[in-house]
Amino acid sequence: MTRKQSGNGVKEIVSRRMDVATARVLLLAGIAGGVAACGGAQGEPPEEVADRGDGYRRVVNVEVQRVETTNFTSTIPLTGVALAMRDVMVSAEEAGVVRRVLRDKGSPVRAGNAILRLDDTILRAQVRTATAKAEYDDEVWERRRKLYEEDGIGSEVAYHEARATAEQSRGNLEALQARLDRTTIRAPIRGTLNDRLVEVGTMVSPGTVVARVVQADTIRIMSGVPERYALHVAVGADASVSFDVLPGEVFAGSMTYVGAVVDLDARTFPVELTLPNPGGRIKPGMVADVSVTQGEMAAAIVVPRQALVSMEDGQVVFVAEEAGGETVAVARRVEVAASQGNDVVIGSGLAPGDRLVVVGQQGLTDGDRVRVVAGEGGAS
Q1: Last residue of a domain, one of 235, 269, 296
Q2: Domain tally for the chain?
Q3: Is 333 part of any domain?
Q4: CB neighbours of 78 closer than 8 A, spacing ≥ 6?
Q5: pLDDT tens digits, residue range 203-233?
Q6: Confidence band (pLDDT; 50, 70, 90) for 146?
Q7: Would you tell me how many other CB atoms lie within 10 Å of the CB of residue 67?
Q8: Average pLDDT over every residue of 329-347
Q9: So what's the pLDDT on residue 159?
Q10: Calpha distance 275→217 (Å, rounded)
Q11: Domain range spanning residue 287?
């Protein structure tokens, strides 16, 4: 190979490498242009750069929402447990053997209805004896009274002894009669005999639990409220209650009890709500989702939370306004009056009719040119 041929080969190799490098540069430039066209951040409208003749100034595509007023209700979400309005364990008051079962579990009962009856043989005999003695002592007292008060016969001591004996006999009879009555165990409240814990032949003593009566036509919801809401919860507050096992159903209730002491471990204070339960669809023990009404505002300005932009000295929103034949973003400092989930109530800084920037506001600065590409107000 001659020197000339060798030189031509080197030039050919260099030329090929330059072509490859040029292709890479063009490829990278194309990728960069594609990224710029799609927007720098996911979900943000693309930016454009326009030459106004006095320097470069960007134009940001945004979406806006027309500010309107609406009624706003803030709530406190809680989790609670459904309990029967009254749940009573019925105990025996006398010792004895169960002789009769008068109502089985699941039966509706009224206050005073007999549930069980104990063996009362011995007590009946004692009542008969006490009755006879009380009647005899009454007769003796009556004779002594007449002799002493009307005829002046007998001593004052005998007179008082006869009266005391008669009164003692009557008291003893009344006590035995009460014990006899207690051998019939009765429902203390209206409700449902939820359980019967003894059978015929069971020996019971005073205090033995024999049955359970539940009154669930009204339900209590027990829950705990975080201490930060202590000033926003009061007796009488409205609440809505739902249950996972009853999808689509919402029950209205009201706050009937607010605890006065915060639990030191859970940092909550107890509350209780009541709600009607006709038909018994709500069962005691169910887990409840509760929303307690914290406050209501009429004609409130409510905006999505993502429209707010946090600054070092507070929060601002951006409003699209027309100025000098172009649309610009104007920063408005706002005060938040309340919030609920993704909804924020603006206390000051916005007015009905403003075109609030809800997409593309992150990274905006006061006075930036914007193009409204979607939302109330159309494109400009």
Answers
A1: 296
A2: 3
A3: yes
A4: 223, 224, 225, 271, 289, 290, 291, 292
A5: 999 999 999 999 999 999 999 999 988 888 9
A6: confident
A7: 20
A8: 92
A9: 86
A10: 9
A11: 75-85+216-296
Q: Looking at residue 375, what is its pLDDT?
A: 78
Dihedral angle computed from the Cα positions of residues 174, 175, 177 and 182, in that order, rounded to the nearest 10 degrees: 140
pLDDT digits (tens, 9 = 90+) for 360-371: 999 899 999 999
Q: How confident is the model at residue 153 (pLDDT cuts 50, 70, 90)?
A: confident
Q: Residue 317: give its domain's CATH number.
A: 2.40.420.20
Instruction: Give residue for tokens 């706003």.
Output: 72
Do 163 and 131 belong to one domain? Answer: yes
- The token pair at 359 is 């997409």
Report the distance separating Cα 137 and Cα 159, nearest Å. Answer: 12
pLDDT at 192 over 50: yes
pTM of the model as a whole:
0.63
Check: CB of residue 65 under 8 Å from CB of residue 376.
yes
- Give pLDDT, residue 339: 85
Number of residues assigned to the chain: 380
- Identify whether 55 is part of a domain: yes
Q: What is the CATH number of the domain that holds 79?
A: 2.40.30.170
Compute the distance between CA of residue 242 and CA of residue 240 in angstroms, rounded to an integer.
7
